[in-house]
Amino acid sequence: MFKQNDFRIYKDSLHKPSDLSKEKIASDPADSGTENSASNKINEQKLNPPERSPESGENFDKFIELAQSPKYPDEKGSEHILFKLLILAFALLIFFSFIPYVFFPLNTSPKDVPSFDDPGIKRLLNQIQLNESLIKEQKILDKRVQLYYYESYSDPVLKALADYIVSKSCKEHEFCGPKAIYLFVRDNINYVSDPQKEYFEHPFETLLGKGADCDGKSILLANLLGQIGVKTRFILIKNHIYVEAYLPYFRNYYKADDNWVPLDATCSNCGFGQVPFENYNKEKTIV
Questions:
Q1: Domain for residue 22, yes or no?
Q2: 74-105, pLDDT tens digit by residue?
Q3: Is 224 within 8 Å of 158 (Cβ atoms)?
């Protein structure tokens, strides 16, 4: 019968080397010497590693260099590149935003637009010779033909007047000139209604009388713009007429249709390129 003490003795025998194993270890001094010599060789290799050939050393160095090189740029490098790209984009945005103002002064505004009190304007108005017979003859014509005639009417005084207004108000005429002429007509010609029968004023009549309604102011404005080479047309809406000037080199901000800029000289509160809000959606007829 197996007793508990017997089990304890058996368990202890598993963890203790037997006498036979002790004898074997003691009887094999060669094996122990072999182990010691092997460990000595390993230590010698660590202290004195074998020499490599130059060719194998170069390949090994290349392998180490390739292994240590990053496969992708680190986070700091990518952030640095992204920051440079953002700076470049911002610089380009500023450049293309301000280059029109530097090289193409589209917002050039006239200064000191002359009035009828200006000595030069008075001198030019004194030279006007109003041909009453010619004006009466034109009043008989069709209204549209009359508009064309008055718009394209050429006279040295009108040409000199347009040149004087622009040269007095602007340093350059291409962008500033049309604005100066518009402001001259808008601010110096008072609005005076026509009689019951429609009446188209000749430009000389408007200048001498210093007043006209929408058609008289529009005719004078179109004529003076034509004197500095600006093409114009008339826009008819219900009970009103105003001018559009062909100015392709102006920004789209001013344009209403293609390259045409609306100019309503009867609107005292309207800036260059503006018409009263209530007239924007009205049906238009181009003359």
A1: no
A2: 555 566 788 788 888 888 877 766 555 555 55
A3: yes
How many domains are contained in the chain?
A: 1
Segments of the chain scoring below 70 in pLDDT: 1-79, 96-107, 133-141, 173, 253
Do 236 and 284 meet the contact criterion of CB atoms below 8 Å apart?
yes
- Picking from 283, 276, 278, 184, the residue whose alpha carbon sits closest to that of residue 228 is 184
Query: Residue 50 gets which letter from DSSP?
Result: P
Bridge partners of 246, per DSSP, are 260
Could you list the residue range(s) of the whole structural domain that residue 125 is in? 119-286
| Whole-prediction pTM | 0.63
Output 245-253 pairs: Cβ under 8 A, ≥24 positions apart.
245/178, 247/178, 249/104, 249/106, 249/174, 249/175, 250/106, 250/175, 251/100, 251/106
CATH code for position 277: 3.10.620.30
| Inter-residue contact 260 to 244 (CB < 8 Å) | yes
Does residue 197 lie within any of the structural domains? Answer: yes
